[in-house]
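pinned: reference chain
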Amino acid sequence: MTRLRNRHLLLGITGGIAAYKSCELVRRLQDHGMSVQVVMTEAATRFVSAMTFQALSGRPVYTDAWDPRVANHMPHIDLSREADGILVAPASADFMARLAQGQANDLLTTLCLAREVPLWIAPAMNRQMWQHPATQENVARLRSHGVTLWGPGQGSQACGEIGDGRMLEPAELIDHLQAALADNTVVLNYPEHDPEASVSALRVPLRGLLDGRRVVITAGPTFEPIDPVRGITNRSSGKMGFALAEAAVAAGAEVTLVAGPVSLATPQGLRRVDVTTAQDMSDAVQSSLPLSPRDVFIGVAAVADWRPAQVHDGKIKKDQGGGLDTVRWVENPDILATVGHRPADQRPFTVGFAAETGTEEGLLNLLGPKRSRKGADLLIGNLATDTFGKDLARLVLFDGSHTQVLPTNTKAAQAHQLILAIADALRKEEG
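pinned: its structure tokens
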């Protein structure tokens, strides 16, 4: 069942040719059972008429902060109070600049400032406008104010140029809304045999915990080719990384998921980048940087430590003196350490995973030195023999001074607990 049924959205529309996409968005949202109240800027009415959106939404469209149709003459208060959230799509560079500066010179900016609900914006502008330093400063300011950006996308633009700046398609925005308006709670059913579990169930709320933050997550294995038919990899399923990505979206974050070769469906409401090798994964992570201290990097992927110095063009023949023992190995980039040791103003809150074999006692002894070596704020240990490819996990959290053992549970439940722990750590760091 759709998560949008019986929900109410306040849809803001600003001046831009992408406003035509919002016509389809309104219709598709209604197909999902969602009611939509449209608020337009004066510039938006130059592209699509208010009458068009009134016909599509079945509700009067508001453009004026002094609209007499609101009984108390406070549309900037009343319109947002009945909504589950506000989406501005398209959001022009001008609107974003005014909102970032706290201006309230029209109805849409005023109600965005006076809101008590989440605010999501879908930027739409020329690629050079998007890339301009002033726009990027406004983006950073908006995120620091708890505003979530969806997009922009990349492709051909109305001006004839190609690049970043396209408004996301209606289907993509609906996926984001589905994720953002999920119940955002999970029931944790601890196995009855676990002696550390003192309760049978625990409800963990996530909504809003990571609003306005960016989260980059690596997941799954890497594959290092030796020749066209051989390579080295590991048994990581990617399930924990994907579960963490879904939980981070539910908590309101803007999530980029860098995934190694796995066969898992993409969670709704995030950007997925598929990679193969450790170098591919490192490049994808670096392209997502710099992040700020408000943001989060979670290195869940089981990255190969080594790769062949040269990938052979043809299959290595064992009967021609070219056995695998002749392969020369070189070290792969250490993605977690690279992020963890970035300059303070460009370093996100850094979370690493340590998959080890052996005993739990041995794992605990490894966490301290490894955390320091990697530059991680939080290191999460798990016994690879217990978790690789399986749906249950038993995790150990170490932040440099405290160790916390999470009882055995599903990876989805553990992911929710980890997002709670990360959000709590961020709150303490920021005072």
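why pinned: The radius of gyration is 24 Å. The chain has two domains: 8-180, 185-429.
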